[in-house]
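Data card: per-record layout.
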Amino acid sequence: MEEGHAHEITTDFIVPLRRSSKLWRFRVLRSDDKLSARLVTDAGDFLMYASVFLEAHRVDFHLYDPCQRELFDRERPAFTMGYNSTRDQWRLVQEQCAACQYASPHRSCASHGKQQVAIINHKQHSVGEGLSNVMEVIIPGLYQNDTCVVWCAMQGKGDLADAGFNTGETQTLVTRKPVWNEQVQSLVLDFKGRNIVSSAKNFQLALRQKPQHVICQYGKLSSTNFGLDFRYPLSVIQAFAAAMSTLFWT
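The structure for this 250-residue chain is written out next.
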């Protein structure tokens, strides 16, 4: 029963938020060593826990807080996100694929990359007198009923990172570039509704085809407290993963 309940929650975290004209507000509470974080609602209710494993080049995402000792299992994350040696490509997967979780092992994608949920690419661009961190997030597309395309190798899907922009089966979000502010001598973004502290980890994302329409924003509120606000078509895990991928941004 417990495993069944956990799977239902996983489904809730992988579907996009319902449509809204405004961003849904959340917060990321980061540990002092920067190697773990909790995603909470803006009111402080727990949603997800992330832990970073530097040697393994991996971030694990759990549906339970480590404080819930009877439920939390460090060996069974719901999602994992690996990154390459240059830390500029991050791959988010769901550990139990929605399409083949009940299939026999030889018919499952478990040994073929698992269900891919997002690819996050990083670069740096010069803006004015500063360097700006740039992010591109590739996510599976949505059907007309707002259900997600399940990116599974056993469903004939290749690598999400290699999916073309014009296939209609993926969506791409890109960072909105900050502008150089002479008065404060810094790159700045306008985070509406948030009192943001300057940080290299701050970013805003928009759909490639609508660059002025903010879909996600992540901004520092204090030393260990970040605002994470987002909306359709992102899911909770996709937004949280994008935030966690800024781990090495300086």
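Known properties of this structure: The radius of gyration is 18 Å. Helices lie at 2-14, 236-244.

See the next section for split statistics.
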